[in-house]
Structures are given as structure tokens and as C-alpha cells.
Request: fold
Amino acid sequence: MNINLEYIKDLASNREGVEVEFKETTGQLNRGMETLCGMVNGKGGIVIFGVNNKGNIVGQEVGDKTTREIGEALRKFDPALEIEPIYIPIDESGKHLIVFKSDGQESDKPYMWDGKPYQRHDSVTSVMPREKFLRLHEQQSGLKYKWENEVNDSLSISDLDEDLILNIVQGGVRRGRLSQSAMNDNVPTALRRLNLVKDGKICNSAVILFGKNLTDYPQSMIRLARLRGTDKREFIDNHQIEGNIFELLDAAMAFFFKHLSLSGENTRQTTTRG
Reply:
């Protein structure tokens, strides 16, 4: 497809839609990149800077500052997105249209821009719901076949720390990472919400997160050591700890605080009255 001025004029005459977005200037660069992210995560589309919301081609000047800002914006895609801007002159004034085009066939979906995944619905761009993000991630990356998503037929909910599961879900609600309805979840519902069970069977990921006995999971173990000097021959303190990921995190933080030097100086002056 030859993306030229006539092609853009034709698009502008038909206004915006799910696969077409106009921005008047790169003063709206962030919003344009969010929309491009949504298009990449969907069936593709085109984002054009230099067309106003009435479909009029106005163009904009392109200098070093503009190209630098565009480069910085493109680097905020995760994974890295191989899309280059197309600069189309509109007349003798030196103004250009700036075009970003995606065919939606990128292989590393879902993409995020500036730390958030976006989706496109009609002519609206919004943050992708967590459930859709995880589902798309599985479909594109094959995560459904990885070890952490395999079930362990020998395990049941009683092998998990049920109080910890509910505390984590409630914390997720308070932080806005889970919907308010999760506050009423029982343990089986919470595990389903977190994609930690399949057909009622416990996945390995659930055990790593919430397991009470992890002797069969050697990967859920850390070794914490403080060494004397730099030759790694003499230990001042040495621990090997088994547990779920939250227990390991607590143990590691306690070990750090035990050995970190937290010295300070009291700078408050005392005044003596005579």
C-alpha cells in the first residue's frame, strides 16, 4: 500500500474509526501512541498527525525537537515496536503529515505503551482489562503450556494458605488492581480469578504463590548469606529458606534489615536556659 497525500486525503474524507485516528499536532503525541498501541494489539490501523478533528489536513512543522520526541515516545513500547514514522509533505510551506501504520500482525502481543496495555473499540482507545491482557498474552506467547500453568493432580486447596490468598485478593482490591467484586470471593473463586486453577485443579503457580509445604518444589527456595571480605570463603551468616514467594520475600527483607547498617546523626540542638 502506497501511503501518500492522496491516500491520507481519502481517509480524512471518511473521518475516524476503529482503524483510523487523526491528531492535529504532536502536542497530542502521548494520546496518539496510546491509540497506536491499541491498534497494534488489535487488527491494526493508522494514526496520522496533522489532520484536525473535522478531517481537514493542516500539517505541522517537523524539526529536531519533534523527531526527538517521536523517538522517545516509540521507545516506550514494550516489547520494542518496529514501526517507523512516515513523513509526508503537504505543500511548499514545509509542513508535513506524520503517519504511523500497523497491520496488526506483530508477533509479540500484547504490547504496552508507557507501562500500560491499550485496546481499540470503535473510535475509542482505553486501557485493556487485566483478564484480556492475560488471555492475549497466553495466546501469543504460549504461556498455557509453560510449567507454572501446568496442574498438579496430587494437590488440593488444603495444600494452600487460604488466609494468605484472601489477604492478597483484598489487597489487590484496595490498590485498584482487582475489581470491587473480588472482596466477596471465597478461596476457589479467588483462585479462578487469578488464573491459578484449571478445571478445578491446582496449578504449579498457585503452589509457588500460596503453598504451605513446598518440599517437592526445589525452585521455591533461597539461600541468604553475608560474607566476610570479598573472597567468599568465610560466612558471617548463612541461611537456606523454603517457602512460598511471600514467605521468601519476608525472609529476604528480614535478613537485609538484620545486616544493613542503619546509622544516623541527631542534629537537633539543645538550648540551655540560665
Observations:
- The chain is about 30% helix and 20% strand.
- The first strand starts at residue 20 and ends at 23.
